[in-house]
Every structure is written in C-alpha cells, then in structure tokens.
Amino acid sequence: MLSTTPRTTLGRKKHRAVTDRSALHAVLDEGLICHLGVVRDGVPLVLPTGYGRDGDTLYLHGSTGASSLRTAADLEVCVTVTLLDGIVYSRSVNNHSMNYRSAVIFGTAKPVVEPEAKMHGLKVLTDHLAPGSWEHAREVNAKEFAAVSVLALDLAEASVKMRAEGPDDEPEDRDADAAWAGVLPVRTVFGEPEPSADLSPGWEVPAHVRGRE
Ligand SMILES: Cc1cc2nc3c(=O)[nH]c(=O)nc-3n(C[C@H](O)[C@H](O)[C@H](O)COP(=O)(O)OP(=O)(O)OC[C@H]3O[C@@H](n4cnc5c(N)ncnc54)[C@H](O)[C@@H]3O)c2cc1C
Fold first, then answer.
1. Class of 6-187 per CATH?
2. If exposure means fewest CB atoms within 10 Å of the residue's CB, which of 46, 47, 154, 198 is most exposed?
C-alpha cells in the first residue's frame, strides 16, 4: 500500500486515489519522462527528465553540469509522471475532462556516488528508456561515468490518482442530448525506426528497437 501522509492525501475527488503500490510501479514503468520539481534560489523549477525504477527506488541522471540535478542533491524534491489516456468530451464544455494515471512522489534525492551503485543506476535508467541498449551499445567509459551524476529517490512517499471514466454530464444535459459525448483515447506509440544516415551498410534494425511496443 502507498503511504498516506498529509501531503500525499488527495484534497479533491478522493475516490480517484489509487493506494495500491503496484499501481505506482505500473505508472512509472509505462511513463518515459518525469517532471522533477526543485526549489532553486527560492524559486520553483520543474524540468522534464528521464528516469528509471528499480523496486522502490527511482533513479534520475544528468550531466554533472546540470544545475537542477545539483540543486536536487540531498534536498527535498517532487517528481511527477503523467500518462494521458483520453480526452473526455461532455455535453457541456464545463464537464470536459481527461482520463489519466498520474503519480506524485516526494522525497530527498540522494546522490549515488559509490561506483557500482552508480553504474547500476545508469543501467536501470537505460533499461527503462531503451531496453536492450545496455547489452547492445558500447559501455560507459570512465570519462563519461565521471561526467554524469545519478540521484536516487525512495518511493516511500507517493500518491497515484487516476480517472478512467466516460463523461460525467449533469442530468439535464444528458436529457437535452444536444452535443456528442464520449472519450477519445490517447496512446503513445513507437513509430518506424529511422536508421542513422551514417550507419554502415548492412545493419538490420535490432530486435530490441524493432520489436518495441
Ligand atoms: C524528454 C526529456 C528528457 C530529458 N531527460 C533528461 C535527463 O534524463 N537528464 C538530464 O539531465 N536532463 C534531461 N533533460 C533536459 C532537462 O530538461 C534540462 O534541460 C537539463 O537537465 C539541464 O538542466 P539545468 O538544471 O542545467 O537547467 P538550466 O539550463 O540551468 O535551466 C535554466 C533555464 O533553462 C530553461 N530550461 C532548462 N531545461 C529546459 C527544458 N527541458 N525545456 C525548456 N526550458 C528549459 C528553463 O527556463 C530554466 O529555468 C530532458 C529533457 C527532455 C525534454
């Protein structure tokens, strides 16, 4: 079960809370980017960032030069992941909505410095964004390893909210039936692989790229 702390308790539409920890894992595993929120120089800063999950640890990484990651180290951060599942068309404009699954995580982002643990974090990130690439692509060299920072965030304090419903029209709008109502599903799909122009001839698109769903 997910924790319910004051700041992870839904204020509105409480029935949309999902408290099963496996739902958090599912949102994180399906999403591809998160938004990392930090307070930098007293001002909120929210940046799109890659991530990966191993158990109840979320890994973030970036250049050692990225000030947002430097700011996040050892400080409280807020990370969100959102999956948009559909646009909900209602009979009234006011009742239009979205179907979604989203996660909000609070915690202290811990720098991962021990080499083996840091390499593991990089593998988790790679396996999430580009499964199969850790085995297929050239391994990280010492210079690259030194130039990247990895942060680990415990998934102890998190909430999941979801909407998976049709339109919620007022009875009088339903009765009047004056507009189309329903859901237009939204999906993220992988397109046709586009080989790099500088690949030598003879390369087939590898299965871990071609077969990705
Ligand atoms: C899909 C996606 C995935 C990404 N994954 C990673 C990742 O895994 N690791 C990583 O380090 N970075 C990632 N980035 C880039 C990340 O968003 C930051 O740009 C980067 O980390 C540099 O951050 P910084 O702290 O140096 O920001 P700075 O460059 O110091 O920010 C200064 C200002 O630049 C602007 N800015 C910075 N980044 C963005 C942005 N992405 N979009 C619009 N304006 C911006 C903002 O106004 C910000 O206040 C990703 C971006 C995208 C879109």
1. mainly beta
2. 198
